[in-house]
Every structure is written in structure tokens, then in C-alpha cells.
Design brief:
The complex is a heterodimer of chains A (545) and B (755).
Chain A (H helix, E strand, L loop, with lengths): L1 H18 L5 H22 L9 E9 L4 E7 L1 H20 L8 H20 L3 H10 L1 H11 L4 H34 L6 H8 L4 H18 L8 H8 L2 H26 L1 H27 L4 H21 L3 H32 L15 H15 L5 H15 L17 H25 L26 H6 L6 H19 L2 H6 L1 H10 L1 H4 L17
Antiparallel strand pairs in A: 1-2
Helix pairs in contact in A: 1-2, 1-4, 2-3, 2-4, 3-4, 3-11, 3-14, 3-19, 4-5, 4-6, 4-11, 5-7, 6-7, 7-8, 7-9, 7-10, 9-11, 9-12, 10-13, 11-13, 11-14, 12-13, 12-17, 13-14, 13-16, 13-17, 14-15, 14-16, 14-19, 15-17, 15-19, 16-17, 16-19
Chain B lengths: L1 H11 L2 H5 L9 H23 L6 H22 L5 E13 L13 E11 L1 H24 L8 H21 L3 H19 L6 H32 L4 H6 L1 H11 L8 H17 L8 H4 L5 H10 L4 H8 L1 H5 L4 H21 L4 H21 L3 H28 L9 E2 L8 H15 L5 H15 L4 H26 L4 E2 L55 H16 L14 H8 L32 H24 L11 H4 L6 H6 L4 H46 L5 H25 L1
Antiparallel strand pairs in B: 1-2, 3-4
Helix pairs in contact in B: 3-4, 3-6, 4-5, 4-6, 5-6, 5-13, 5-18, 5-22, 5-23, 6-7, 7-8, 7-13, 8-11, 11-14, 13-18, 16-17, 16-21, 17-18, 17-20, 17-21, 18-19, 18-20, 18-22, 18-23, 19-21, 19-22, 20-21, 20-24, 21-24, 27-28
Classes of the chains: A mainly alpha (545), B mainly alpha (755).
């Protein structure tokens, strides 16, 4: 029931928001998200962690029996943690929009809640149909949020976001449908159940798997986003309202990595083993390339947006290492990135509300004006840089270590696992640690430290043309104090506590992930063991049907 | 010795049995657990002070109390020391896999990445912790007065938060029982260094220096991280005790001791090379030393504690801690020796040509760290650790004395603009303690710095094949004596003269300059533009600028005196214990830890001061261990003498000395040295600029090509849509076409798979 409640509560509150008057919208939305957070917290306690690999809270409703269409939900520990992340970011999104969104509040909060329900649905889905429906449905609320509440260039950003990711997911659908069809061709039985499909999908020939993998990646890699299909992201992030960016970075990108974990890995284990170096290569290119691009941005938000491309590169790298270390690191990375980058977007939103600019040419040395904001900024930057003791480090280190371990070179060593990555991949990806320090400290050095720079004419709360009736409440913003108020501190503090907690004591989370990770590693073992055939007698690996 | 250490290591291995846990730590470990806890209490208390807007010296007293408590704990542990102790705080990262039973039978072995918040306390740890916590306490006391100018701002609390956090990180680094926790401390001290270098955050140069320190350190950190990963992959552990007692590792060590390096795989030999990169970054060795001189932008107590005495010795600690790992590689220690020697010489030559006294001290730190690395490289981990220990005292002393000058003369650090400070009223203690520091640094006979430096020099000549390193170090010793006393003779003695610096320390008005950071010429001083300096001397204390140098108060003087006494008090330590005369107490401490040398008789690994074996090197045909005392003493005195002739004898004004007359004869060299041999510019040209160009290029590529292609694809359906039905917007057609495309693609896949 808990999972259904987690989907339905936001939906119900969304309806309630739509029915009630405008001025009540934000408090209703806050209660709705808090309710979901409460349920989610309860599931974390209630969950049977000894069986973390088993789908719990399972519910299943038949829909069209003739073709085995059912709606089933259930969560293993990976789903549960990602749902918890979604629920955790919910109140943050509502709180950080309180003064930023001043017109058409009902629409905003209603769609925000719908979005949360859809994202929860993606993680809770245990069959393809529900997954895909929710996966695609997230696009619509997000499109509305960007299109109606974004900055100047929002229409273009919204359209591009929609078309780009939608096209990708259509191709992914093709891949998923093929897997279902394959199941039918083997067993003459229609089913959309994840487990059932996993069991047969692994029996596809490696050529089939390669095509399915390509199709799935077309959808998921765009979402992640993996280089070179990342260009929708900086635009969408920059134009989206703060809450939109938080959701986008915090959860929506993870739909891609989650999809890879949940579908690409178990459906095409051979292919993923075969193409792991290629995918890892793309991730590493993304890490370094996007990192360097960050460094030359002048818009703070764009900088953080590009940094997501670099960060998620680590995440995918860990995933395709196909060993316990890498996959655990990768899943942790999804959570940690959601927290630290989400917080960075919240912080930038606070600045934007006060100064109506995000350009580093017009902002500088804010430590002198806003010490509290600056402390948070430095803190979350450090979390993002991957400072040990904060959350980012654990996941980044595990991803890198996973890639490092995954090499046939280490055969026979106590720490090595089969795979085709190894030292060079880890070392080159590791330069991303340096690049991250370069661009993030560059940002902090300009915005937080240095001589104070404020936009011309700031402070009188007027005179900023925002064209197109964009949603910037000048009136409200003028009422904001110079430094953060308690509501804003209250938004950031839970995120900071979570960052410290996951950095200092990640052990329970790591242990909790053991079940699903071990299952996935077992499924992909054959792929990980793949060795490219010697040149002379090139022969594809044998497939056992 | 070796077997003794191994036995104690083996006893520690199953952590739960011998080590105890958080609730039941073994005897002696409880006190050590208190060290990180107390420093964290300091962090929290100072944070609360910052939040509660405390505008008194309370944070300073809290810090002094916490740090003194920590020092007390370390001291008590030291006095009650019975052998290595292992205390597991709590499980930090524990990732386990394997263990399942495959279909074919048998069982996949269980593997785990295990990194606890666990402490490993042996004599090496204690040696480090004693001076880290001891100096931190003293320097916190010093800072309570030094930072007093900021007491009315949040900066005072902020300073002490970072200060305590630093000591916490350092204690993690030194007391960790595994490499990953060491890494936590390693990056933690880097963060504190970043925050404290950038303390004056309104100053662009401070911000840039902080950034540079962090980034350059990160380069080293990557090396360290990869080294840790390689250790884990090869040995399945990151804990020292398990690693060093690992049978495979012991096998490699045995092969190395026998000189059979060919049998050790290349990737094992790569481990020390990677760890070394980390050590070079943190300890400012060539080529990663460039951040340390710039780090002097931070407040002086920070320079004294972090960038002279403690943090920068972390690299030495790492190598000492993993000294055995370094011995399984044929090239690791020779590289360390040579890098150390090169750094020592390079930094000394730069230091000779600088005018900023704090930077001279910074370069001398780099140079002395070079000595320590050279010491490690020539197999005297004892000499290196001993030098770390003595250096911590006298270098902290030197920095704090320079800091007192800077504090009293409004940030003036140019040795051409200060002279005869010692004779000014209230400056005697600073002058005398500075002299003590300088004599130690210069290696004046019989002082602490002399004994430790001598051990390294003698061993360099004694270790076969390293006499070139020895000569470089000996030359550097002379240069060191010269530049050290160049500072002393110009600033502290000679004719009295001063020009105040341009930093009003915040005493007069802490608030007025809020917006611009550095308060240059105050409006009231317009009449006394700085342009008319040239000719006339500003008589001592003459109120020309309305400026009076203010001599240090009790806290600063007390700390200086304590440190100076300490620098003398550690001399007898060289003459006690099993190794009296050869490192004494410090040697015992190192020998009883994992940093001790391997058993003698293997030739390669022997410490060699028994002088008994065949390959013993010589110094001009004599036993280096016997003659080096005299040689290095003479070299030091000659260096001081040259400085006396060039910089004190016959000097009548501050800005000129006899050395100026020599400069033209040297051609462009002094200029190059003054510009730090253009290494920064070279790095800029070689690394920063290409990266910057690449970044812009990538940005363009991203916009035009990567995104351009996407837009092109997006344009096709829109154009088609327009062509088909121009009355509607293209967007919907886009969807429709994309969907059609998707379906077509799907069919394609199905067809291809079916065929």
C-alpha cells in the first residue's frame, strides 16, 4: 500500500490544489509533499533490509488479461532509496518556490505534485507499461513548469527538452517492445513483468542485445545525459524555475541511470559487457569535456547545469564497470548528486530572486553581503567537488574504484573483477576530480569570494524588465532580506544534514544496496567476463538459449 | 625488530579481537579517540559562536582549551605507551561482495572494501600527534591576539572553526588505520588550507592563492587515490596492518631486500610511484610546490601551523607510514631522493632572491621539506622524521616572529623597508626568538636543526650511489644559512628604520572597508602620499604617517618564548634512548613503527650507521657519519658569515646593502631567481592556457556542432511539417514525425533481429 500511497498522495493533493483558491496553493502543496515524505520515511524503517533485493510493498492489478497487461508496483532497496530522494526533494521544491513563483500558483504547484507522483511511479513500477507511461508522463509537467515559469528563453528550452527526450524515449520504447516480443516468441505468452522479461531477455543473441541496448540507450542516455546527447540539458536547466531545476537535476536525470540499471543491464548483459569500454569512454569524455565547458561559463546556473553532465559521467562509468563497487557507487551517486546539485540550484535560485541575474560578471564577493548563503554555497560546492566526509566522495570514489577494478588485467588478485576498463579508464576519469575542483572553485572564487560586485541599481526592487510576463515577483523579492531568512535556511539545512550523514556514515546505505546490486552483478557476470575475440578467429561469444 | 613489528601487526589484524570497538576500546586508545572528538567539539562550539554572533575572544579560548585537551590526551597516551593500539570508531565504508555459491559448486570468496573510522596508534603516530596538537595549542593562543583585529566581525569565529577543523583533519590523517581515512584527512586538511588561505576573501590575490593550493593539491590527491585503488586491487585491503602483514606483500618485500626487483610485477612497483605524487602535492615538492609560496596570503598563524609545521609534512608522513611499500620498487626511493634534493636547491635559490620575508620563509619550508624527502629517499626515515620534528618547532617560531613583525608594521614584509627592529622598544623578544629560529634553520652547530639536518646529510653520503644528492644538499645547507641570515641581518639588526605596510590591520576601523577589502591610503593621509618615500628615512616611530608600530602583547610573546625554549629543549632528545646521537628519541619512535628500516644485512635496506658493511659510501674518503658534523657546521657558519658581510657589515640604510653591488656581476640570474625561475609562467603556458583554450573550443563545439546537429535534426521535421501543412505550427508535427520515426525504427529493429 505504501507505494500506491506515495503515488496517490501527491496526485490527490494536486487535485486539491487545483480546487482551492490561489493563495492556499503553496501551503497545500507543502502539506502534500510533507505527507509523501512521511510515508517515504516510514517505508525506510519498515522495509525489510535483509531482503533488499526483493520487490516489497508489491501490488498488482490486472488490466488487459489477454495480453498480460497488468499494473504492478514494488520496490527493492534501489527503488526505495530513489523514491525517498524524490520525496525528500518535494518539500524542498515547494519551499524554494514560495517567493519565486507569484503568478498562476495553482497551476505550478499542481503540476509539481503531479510530477512527483509520476517520478515515484517510475521508480515503483514493476512492469514495463507502468514504467513507460510514468517515464513519458514526467515530460508533460516538466514541460509546463519550464514553459510557463522559466526565464526569458523558456519556450525554446521547454520545446527542445520535450522533443529531444521524447524522441529518445520513443526509440527506447522500441527496444522494450522488442524484449516483450522476444519473450512472446520464446514462450508464446505475453507479459510485461520485469522479472519475467529479465529471465528471457538474457537469452537474446548478442547481436539482438546490441540492438536493444542501442535503443534503450537512445532513451536513457539522453535523459542521463551522456555525451554527446546532452545539449538539451544546459538550456533546460538554465531556463527552468528553481524548483524545476532541482527536480530536473535531482530526480529526472536519474530516470536515465535508473533505466540503465533496471533495464539495460539485465536485458542486454552480453551487449553491455561488449560495449562497456565504449560507454565508459563516452562517460569519460563527458566528464572532462563538460567539466572544461563549465569553466568558461559566465552564467552560474549554466555552469552547475553542465557540471551535471560531468557528474553523471561518473555515475554511468561506475554502472558499466559491472561490479559491486561500481554499481553501488553509481546508485549512491544518483542520490548524492540529487542532494548536492539540487542544493546548488536552490542556492542559485535564492541569488536570482535577490539580484535578478545569474551572471558572474554582475555578481561577486557575496560573502561580504550574505555570509549565511555563502557558507551554504561553499559547503555544497565541497559536497559537489567530492570532499571526503561529505556525500559526493563516497560515490565518486566507489565509481572510480569500480572502473579501476574492472579489468582482466587484475585476474587472480583479491580486489580485481573481470571487465575491460581498468587503470587507464579510472585515471583519465579521475582527472575529472581535478577539473571539478577547477570549475567549482572558479565559481566560488567569483561569486562568493573576491571584491563585492552587485548588479547596477540593485536594491530598489524595480527597473528590471523581465519581458513576457515571466514569473518573477519583484514585489516579493524586494521583501526578502539581504541574507537568507529562516524559511530559506530551513530549505537548505536538511539537505546539508543529509550530505554530512551520507558522507560520514554511508555504511547502512551501502549495505542496504547489497541485495539488488548483487543480483545485477550476477545477471551481468557473463557480460563482464567478455573478452574481445582474438583477431585471427573472430567469433562472437556463444549464446546459450 | 621486523618480526617484532610484524607480530604486533598480526595481533592487530582481526580488528574485533585485539582492537575493541567504540564502546570498549583497548587501553590507551580511548585517550586517542578523544583527540578527534575534542577538536570536533571545538569546531561545533566555534560554529555556534559564529551563529550566535559572539563578538569576543571566546572562540579563541574555546579552541585553546580543546586543543590543549587534545595535546594532554596525546601526551598521556605517549607516557602510557605499551605498544601499537588499534581502535575502531565506527564503520565508515564497508562494501562486501562475493560469497555466493555458483552452480558449479565451490564458493566465490568474500571480498570487501573495508574502511573504518579507526585509529591506529603507534610511535610514528604519536611523534606526529605530539607536535601537531602541541603546536596547534600554542598557535591558537598566538592567533587569539594576532586575529584580534577581526574580533568584532564573524571572521574571528570563522578562523577558529577552520583552525579546529584542520586539527581534526590532521588527526584523521595521522591516526587513521587505513589509507581511505588517511585520504579523508588528506583532503580535509586541503579544505582547511583552502578556507584559511582565502581568509581575507575580499583580496583577489588571497582567493587566487587558495584556489591554486586546492587545485594543485588535487593533482597530487588523484595520484594518491589511484595508489590506494591499486593497493586495494592488488592486496584486497586498504588497512595498513593487513597490508603490511599480507603474505604476498611480504614476499615482494623479501624479493626487494634481496635485490631481486625483476621478480616484482610492474604494477606493484607502480604503487609507490602513485603514492609519491600525492606526497609531492601535499608537501610542496617539485613539480607541485608552486602553491605553497602563494599560500602565504593566509594569516600568519595559518602559515606557521599549516604551511610550515604540520600539514606540509603529511607527505613525509605518508611515505614514512608506507615506507615498506616504497621499498618494493626499484626506483621509488631514488626518485624521492632526487626530487627532494632538486626541490631543496631550487627553493633555496628562489628564497635567496625574494624580498618578502614571509615568502622567503615559505621557500625555506619548501627547501627543508626537500631535505626530508631526500632523507626518506636515502633510507633514513629516522632523519626525515627527526627533521620534521625539529623543523616544526623552529619554522613555526620563524613564521610567528615574522607574523609579529607583519602584525606590528601594518603588513610590511619587505626586508628593504624594515631594519633594526630588534632594538625598537618592545621588540626584543621577537628579535631574540627570531635569532633562535634562524640559527636552527641555518644549521648552527649543536642546535636542534643542526642535528637533524646532519643526519640526512651524512646518510646521503653514506648510502652508496647518493653522494651527488649529498653534495646538492650540502650546497643547499650553505644557501639556507645565507638567506636565513639575510633576513635576520636586514630586518632585525642594523640601523633602525621602517615604513609601515599598506594594510591597516583592522584595529583602527574594522568596518570601514567592508566593501573593498584592502584599505589602501586612508583619505586622512592624502597629504602623505607614498610617492615621496625615496630619499628620506622615516625615523623610528616618527609619526609621519600617524603610524606607530605596535609591539606584540603577552600572548604572542609567550608563544614565541615557549617555542624558542622548545627548540632548545628538544636538543637533548637526540642523546637519549637506543639511538643516542643518531636521532635519539625520535629515532626510537620511528624504529618502533612501520617506518623503521628493514633488517640489516640486506645491503640495500640497511640504515648503515653501524658502518660495518661493504657498500658504505664515504665523504671524500672519510666516514660521513663522523665528519659530517664538522662539515655541515662549517658550511652553516660560512653561509652566515657571507650574509653578515653582504647584508649587515657597513649597512647604513634599509634598502641597500653590499649585496647590491654584487648583483650586476651575476647578470640576469638574480632576476630570474626573483621571478621564481618563471616556473609559474611556464605552468601557465604549458597547462593552464591550453586547458583554457580547450575549454573555449569545447564550448564552441558544444554550441555549434554537438547542439547544431541536434538542431538540424529538429529542423527537418519542422520544415517538412511546414511544407505539408503550413497553417499550423511545426511543433506538433515534430512530435508526430518523431513518433513515426520511432515506429519505423522499431520495425527496423524487429526486421533486423528477425532476419
Amino acid at each position: 500500500m505504501a507505494l500506491l500511497a506515495l503515488i496517490l498522495v501527491p496526485l490527490l493533493f494536486a487535485g486539491y490544489v487545483a480546487l482551492r483558491p490561489e493563495r492556499e496553493a503553496k501551503s497545500i502543496a507543502l502539506w502534500g509533499t510533507l505527507g509523501a515524505l512521511g510515508i517515504s520515511a516510514w517505508t525506510l524503517f519498515d522495509f525489510d533490509w535483509g531482503q533488499s533485493g526483493v520487490f516489497q510493498y508489491a501490488e498488482s492489478f490486472s488490466w488487459v488479461d489477454a495480453i498480460g497487461l497488468r499494473l504492478s508496483v514494488g520496490a527493492d532497496s534501489v527503488s526505495l532509496m530513489l523514491i525517498a530522494l524524490t520525496a525528500f526533494l518535494g518539500p524542498v521544491c515547494v519551499l524554494c518556490s514560495r517567493t519565486a513563483i507569484t503568478h498562476r500558483q495553482r497551476t505550478f504547484y499542481a503540476w509539481l505534485l503531479v510530477l512527483q507522483a509520476a517520478m515515484t511511479g517510475v521508480f515503483a513500477a514493476r512492469d514495463l507499461v507502468l514504467f513507460y507511461v510514468c517515464f513519458e508522463f514526467t515530460l508533460i509537467p516538466m514541460w509546463v513548469l519550464i514553459n510557463l515559469y522559466g526565464s526569458t528563453n523558456r519556450k525554446k528550452a521547454a520545446t527542445k527538452f520535450f522533443l529531444y527526450t521524447f524522441t529518445g524515449s520513443l526509440i527506447a520504447l522500441a527496444g522494450l517492445v522488442y524484449v516483450v516480443w522476444f519473450k512472446w516468441s520464446v514462450s508464446q505468452q505475453w507479459t510485461f513483468d520485469l522479472y519475467e522479461l529479465q529471465r528471457t531477455a538474457a537469452r537474446m543473441s548478442s547481436a539482438e542485445q546490441a540492438w536493444v541496448l542501442l535503443a534503450l540507450l537512445a532513451g536513457f542516455a539522453v535523459k542521463v545525459p551522456l555525451f554527446p546527447v546532452h545539449t538539451w540539458l544546459p538550456l533546460a536547466h538554465t531556463e527552468a524555475p528553481t524548483a524545476g531545476s532541482v527536480i530536473l537535476a535531482g530526480v529526472l536525470l536519474k530516470l536515465g541511470t535508473y533505466g540503465i540499471f533496471r533495464f539495460a543491464l539485465p536485458f542486454c548483459p552480453l551487449a553491455i559487457g561488449e560495449y562497456a569500454p565504449l560507454i565508459a569512454g563516452l562517460s569519460i569524455v563527458g566528464i572532462v569535456y563538460a567539466g572544461l565547458v563549465c569553466w568558461v561559463q559566465t552564467d552560474v546556473k549554466k555552469l552547475v547545469a553542465y557540471s551535471s553532465v560531468a557528474h553523471l559521467g561518473f555515475c554511468v562509468l561506475g554502472m558499466v564497470a559491472l561490479n559491486d563497487t561500481g554499481i553501488t557507487g553509481s546508485i549512491l551517486y544518483m542520490i548524492n548528486h540529487g542532494l548536492s546539485t539540487g542544493a546548488l540550484f536552490v542556492l542559485i535560485g535564492m541569488i536570482y530572486e535577490r539580484y535578478h541575474t545569474r551572471s558572474m560578471d554582475e555578481l561577486g564577493g557575496l560573502a561580504a553581503r550574505m555570509p549565511v548563503w555563502s557558507s551554504f554555497m561553499v559547503f555544497f560546492t565541497m559536497a559537489s567537488v567530492g570532499l571526503p566526509g561529505l556525500n559526493g566522495f563516497v560515490s565518486e570514489f566507489l565509481c572510480l574504484l569500480g572502473a579501476f577494478q574492472a579489468s582482466h588485467e587484475w585476474a587472480g588478485t583479491p580486489g580485481g573483477t573481470p571487465g575491460r576498463l581498468g587503470f587507464v579508464y579510472a585515471a583519465v576519469a579521475g582527472t575529472g576530480m581535478i577539473v571539478a575542483a577547477i570549475y567549482l572553485l572558479y565559481m566560488v572564487g567569483r561569486v562568493v569570494f573576491g571584491p563585492l560586485v552587485e548588479p547596477h541599481g540593485h536594491g530598489n526592487g524595480s527597473g528590471h524588465g523581465h519581458g513576457n510576463g515571466a514569473a518573477h515577483g519583484n514585489g516579493d523579492a524586494a521583501a526578502l532580506p539581504r541574507d537568507l531568512n529562516w524559511r530559506e535556511i530551513g530549505t537548505l539545512l536538511p539537505l546539508a544534514i543529509a550530505c554530512v550523514g551520507l558522507g560520514v556514515y554511508p555504511s547502512p546505505v551501502i549495505q542496504g544496496l547489497r541485495g539488488p546490486v548483487a543480483t545485477t552483478v550476477a545477471v551481468t557476470k557473463e557480460g563482464a567476463a567478455y573478452k574481445p575475440p582474438a583477431r585471427a578467429d573472430a567469433k562472437p561469444p556463444e549464446v546459450s538459449r | 625488530m621486523l618480526s617484532g613489528i610484524l607480530n604486533s601487526l598480526a595481533a592487530l589484524m582481526p580488528a574485533a579481537e585485539a582492537g575493541g570497538d567504540l564502546l570498549h576500546p583497548p587501553k590507551g586508545a580511548m585517550l586517542m579517540l578523544a583527540v578527534p572528538v575534542l577538536t570536533l567539539v571545538g569546531v561545533l562550539a566555534c560554529t555556534i559562536c559564529a551563529v550566535a554572533r559572539v563578538r569576543t575572544k571566546l572562540p579563541a579560548w574555546i579552541s585553546v582549551a580543546c586543543l590543549a585537551g587534545a595535546f594532554g590526551c596525546v601526551l598521556a597516551t605517549f607516557l602510557g605507551y605499551e605498544g601499537p593500539r588499534h581502535a575502531v570508531g565506527f564503520e565508515w565504508i564497508h562494501l562486501q561482495w562475493g560469497g555466493e555459491t555458483p552452480r558449479g559448486g565451490g564458493q566465490v570468496p568474500i571480498r570487501a572494501l573495508h574502511a573504518n573510522f579507526g585509529l591506529y596508534v603507534d610511535t610514528l603516530t604519536l611523534l606526529w600527534m605530539l607536535f601537531v596538537t602541541g603546536l596547534a595549542t600554542l598557535i591558537a593562543l598566538y592567533a587569539s591576539e594576532y586575529m584580534a583585529g577581526d574580533v568584532r566581525t564573524a571572521g574571528y569565529s570563522r578562523f577558529f572553526v577552520a583552525f579546529n577543523l584542520f586539527v581534526f583533519s590532521m588527526s584523521c590523517l595521522v591516526m587513521a588505520d587505513n589509507l581511505l581515512l588517511l585520504y579523508l584527512g588528506w583532503e580535509g586538511v586541503g579544505l582547511c588550507s583552502y578556507l584559511l588561505i582565502g581568509y581575507f576573501y575580499k583580496k583577489p590575490s588571497a582567493v587566487a592563492a587558495a584556489k591554486k593550493a586546492f587545485i594543485v593539491n588535487r593533482i597530487g590527491d588523484l595520484g594518491l587515490a589511484l595508489g590506494i585503488m591499486l593497493i586495494f586491487v592488488k592486496f584486497g585491503t586498504v588497512e595498513y596492518a593487513t597490508l603490511l602483514a599480507d603474505s604476498k606483500f611480504q614476499g615482494f618485500l623479501a624479493a626487494a631486500t634481496a635485490g631481486d626487483f625483476a621478480s616484482i610485477p610492474w604494477d606493484i612497483q607502480l604503487i609507490p610511484a602513485l603514492l609519491m605524487i600525492g606526497a609531492f602535492g601535499k608537501s610542496a615538492q617539485f613539480p607541485l610546490y608552486v602553491w605553497l609560496p602563494d599560500a602565504m596570503e593566509g594569516p600568519t598563524p595559518v602559515s606557521a601551523l599549516i604551511h610550515a609545521a604540520t600539514m606540509v609534512t603529511a607527505g613525509v608522513f605518508l611515505i614514512a607510514r608506507t615506507f615498506w611499500v616504497f621499498q618494493v620498487s626499484e626506483y621509488a626511493l631514488p626518485i624521492v631522493a632526487w626530487i627532494g634534493a632538486i626541490t631543496a636547491l631550487l627553493a633555496a635559490t628562489i628564497g635567496m632572491a625574494q624580498f618578502d620575508i614571509k615568502r622567503i620563509m615559505a621557500y625555506s619550508t619548501v627547501s627543508q621539506l626537500g631535505y626530508m624527502f631526500a632523507g626518506l629517499g636515502v633510507m633514513t626515515s629516522v632523519g626525515a622524521a627527526f627533521h620534521v620534528f625539529t623543523h616544526a618547532f623552529f619554522k613555526a617560531l620563524l613564521f610567528l616572529a615574522c607574523g609579529a613583525v607583519m602584525h606590528g608594521f601594518a603588513g610590511q614584509l619587505d626586508l628593504r623597508k624594515l631594519s633594526g627592529v630588534q632594538k625598537m622598544p618592545g621588540w626584543r623578544i621577537v628579535g631574540v626568538t627570531m635569532l633562535v629560529g634562524c640559527l636552527n634553520l641555518a644549521g648552527f652547530p649543536l642546535l636542534a636543526g643542526f642535528w637533524s639536518k646532519d643526519m640526512i646529510l651524512a646518510q646521503a653520503f653514506a648510502e652508496p650511489g647518493y653522494s651527488a644528492v649529498g653534495w646538492v644538499l650540502l650546497l643547499t645547507a650553505g644557501l639556507t644559512a645565507y638567506y636565513t641570515f639575510r633576513v635576520y641581518f636586514r630586518v632585525f639588526v642594523g640601523p633602525q628604520h621602517f615604513e609601515p605596510g599598506d594594510e591597516v590591520h583592522g584595529h583602527d576601523d574594522a568596518h570601514g572597508h567592508g566593501d573593498h577589502g584592502h584599505a589602501h591610503a586612508e583619505p586622512a593621509h592624502d597629504g602623505h602620499g607614498h610617492g615621496d618615500h625615496a630619499g628620506h628615512a622615516h625615523g623610528s616611530g616618527g609619526g609621519q604617517h600617524g603610524f606607530h608600530p605596535h609591539p606584540p602583547g603577552w600572548a604572542i610573546n609567550l608563544v614565541l618564548v615557549v617555542l624558542a625554549i622548545g627548540a632548545f629543549a628538544i636538543i637533548p632528545l637526540n642523546f637519549i634512548g637506543e639511538h643516542a646521537g643518531h636521532g635519539g628519541w625520535a629515532a626510537d619512535m620511528v624504529h618502533h613503527s612501520t617506518a623503521g628500516p628493514l633488517p640489516a644485512g640486506a645491503g640495500h635496506a640497511a640504515e648503515g650507521h653501524g658502518g660495518g658493511h661493504a657498500e658504505h659510501g664515504t665523504f671524500l674518503g672519510m666516514d660521513p657519519h663522523k665528519v659530517m658534523y664538522y662539515v655541515s657546521g662549517v658550511v652553516g657558519i660560512v653561509g652566515i658569515g657571507i650574509a653578515f658581510v653582504l647584508h649587515l657589515a657597513g649597512r647604513t640604510e634599509a634598502a641597500r646593502s653590499r649585496a647590491d653591488g654584487l648583483l650586476p656581476a651575476l647578470g640576469p640570474i638574480p632576476g630570474w631567481a626573483q621571478h621564481k625561475w618563471y616556473v609559474d609562467e611556464f605552468y601557465d603556458f604549458l597547462i593552464r592556457t591550453p586547458l583554457w583554450v580547450a575549454a573555449h573550443l569545447f564550448h564552441l563545439v558544444d554550441k555549434l556542432i554537438v547542439d547544431g546537429l541536434v538542431n538540424l535534426f529538429g529542423f527537418i521535421p519542422r520544415a517538412l511539417g511546414k511544407a505539408i501543412r503550413p497553417s499550423q505550427s511545426g511543433v506538433l508535427h515534430g512530435y508526430a514525425l518523431a513518433m513515426a520515426g520511432g515506429v519505423a525504427f522499431l520495425l527496423l529493429i524487429v526486421l533486423m533481429a528477425a532476419l
